[in-house]
Design brief:
Layout (H helix, E strand, L loop, with lengths): L7 H20 L7 H6 L6 H27 L6 H22 L8 H6 L2 H34 L3 H49 L3 H11 L21 H17 L2 H7 L5 H32 L5 H4 L7 H8 L5 H37 L5 H25 L7 H25 L5 H21 L7 H24 L1
Length: about 475
């Protein structure tokens, strides 16, 4: 009988992986001579590397541990969102990207300055930074869950270890190191998920049919949910909610969020950026399907046991429990390495994107010529370190949450995404709105979401669409009133 649990060989695998990935990132980072090199890369990066990096950045540990846990408790309805994700990226590729490539843009929010003015750029950058700080704080905490299981340490220490590892190659290599490491790590964590699925099936008497029987009987293979009943707006995983909610959420996260736009702008051309963005949407459908199926396999493996019966507090702990307690030595280390790959890619990207927005959107416009290229680079690295520390504090803040972390992170993002995306759409689709109209619409979109969330009658999947609608209505109406007043 092969002993189960996380043993010495697993720790060896993890240490080798962590050291190897840091060295890989530093070697592939090249030389940075300015903040632009540091945040955008000195030369264009192949579209497929950018594509893999986008997928890795949005995946994080949430997909690795929370999506299987969500499928364990519910079914496959979450996959409906991914079809909307693909539609949103297609729209971004043909509406937003051409606008970004018209000028020499350094961040997503530089477009807003060109279209409206510096105040709009600064406000959008601040909204992005605080949203990313909260959402990625949740993601960092999610990563600490399995690390706590493995090392038997407290959450704060686990959070700190992960942040230091991600900071190591981000500090040295900037976005170029982040993208190349992401491309490699996407292959690692998908391989880890596939390995877990194969092991679950092969360990069951009767294989696939036997391990999925209980999930099938419980209705967990249900993919589509029309949800046209009384709780239509309150149910997050309906077909229309998935298509429209997922589409607008993806338009925001991949069209106006610096975490992704930083990668997109590092591609060689507009065509390359489109390939990377749309390709990521195709990959993400198959990726979410993989992790949802792993959750159903876990349901069969544990014979449908409840969280209480498993001795767990949250569904996010189900997959880590299987990895650390149900796998032979060595294999557990490989899959945990995949989990860390998903985590480090998002953490590194978050540090780099928040630092780039801080330096290029907030500091450089204010200090102007005083902030020379020679001063920009060391300042950029210092700001990166500061944001790493703030992310640690944010993760510690969310330690006591009982909500599934994937839903919590997406809810936080949706809270401000509507106003942010609506402001961009005002600038791209309409010529009349001025900076004052855009700012008023932006604030109205966020304020309206405060009301919607406090009422607790609408599911988080609708948040972005509602915020966009409020922003467009207020901004558009003000622009019309201003024109009539002038006439």
């Amino acid at each position: 009988m092969i002993p189960l649990g996380f043993g010495t060989i697993d720790y060896v695998v993890l240490v080798i992986y962590i050291i190897g990935i840091a060295v890989f990132g530093i070697v592939w980072s090249g030389t940075q001579r300015s903040a632009r090199d540091y945040f955008l890369g000195r030369e264009g990066i192949p579209w497929w590397a950018v594509c893999f990096s986008i997928v890795a950045a949005e995946t994080s540990t949430l997909t690795f541990i929370s999506i299987p846990g969500l499928a364990y408790l519910t079914n496959l309805n979450f996959l409906q969102l991914t079809f909307g994700y693909l539609l949103g990226r297609i729209i971004v590729s043909f509406i937003f990207l051409p606008a970004y490539y018209k000028g020499e843009l350094s961040t997503a929010y530089a477009f807003l300055e060109t279209r409206f003015g510096s105040k709009t750029r600064s406000f959008a950058s601040l909204v992005f930074i605080f949203t990313r700080m909260a959402a990625d704080g949740v993601r960092l905490f999610a990563t600490a869950i399995p690390l706590k299981f493995i090392l038997d340490i407290d959450y704060p220490l686990a959070i700190l270890i992960l942040a230091i590892v991600a900071l190591a190659y981000t500090y040295v290599g900037g976005v170029r190191a982040v993208i190349w490491v992401d491309a490699l790590q996407m292959l690692v964590y998908i391989g880890g998920a596939l390995l877990a699925g194969v092991l679950l099936v092969s360990s069951a008497d009767g294989g696939w049919a036997a391990i999925t029987q209980k999930a099938w009987e419980a209705g967990k293979f249900q993919l589509f949910n029309l949800g046209l009943g009384e709780n239509f707006w309150g149910s997050p995983y309906t077909l229309l909610g998935g298509l429209f909610g997922g589409m607008f959420l993806s338009m925001a996260s991949h069209g106006v969020d610096q975490l992704v736009i930083q990668r997109v702008l590092a591609a060689k051309s507009l065509i390359a950026s489109r390939k990377a963005l749309i390709g990521s949407g195709v990959i993400i459908i198959f990726q979410f399907a993989l992790f949802l199926v792993v959750g159903l396999l876990l349901y069969g493996h544990y014979r449908g046991a409840s969280l209480a019966e498993l001795g767990l507090i949250r569904s996010d702990e189900i997959f880590p429990r299987y990895i650390t307690q149900g796998l032979p030595p060595g294999l557990a280390g490989l899959i945990i390495a995949g989990l860390l790959a998903a985590a480090l890619s998002t953490l590194a990207g978050s540090m780099s994107s928040m630092a780039s927005s801080t330096v290029l959107d907030l500091l450089k416009p204010r200090f102007g010529v005083a902030l020379t290229p020679e001063r920009e680079l060391p300042l950029s690295r210092i700001v990166t370190v500061l944001w790493a520390g703030i992310l640690v504090g944010s993760a510690v803040f969310f330690m006591n949450t009982t909500q599934a972390v994937v839903e919590l992170a997406l809810s936080i993002a949706s809270f401000t995404y509507g106003g942010l995306l609506g402001t961009f759409l005002l600038g791209v689709l309409f010529k009349r709105p001025t900076q004052e109209d855009a700012l008023a619409g932006f604030v109205a979109g966020i304020f309206f979401m405060v009301i919607v969330i406090s009422l607790k009658v609408v599911a988080w999947t609708w948040f972005t669409l509602i915020g966009v609608t409020a922003t467009l209505i207020v901004g558009g109406a003000l622009s019309l009133l201003t024109k009539r007043a002038e006439e």
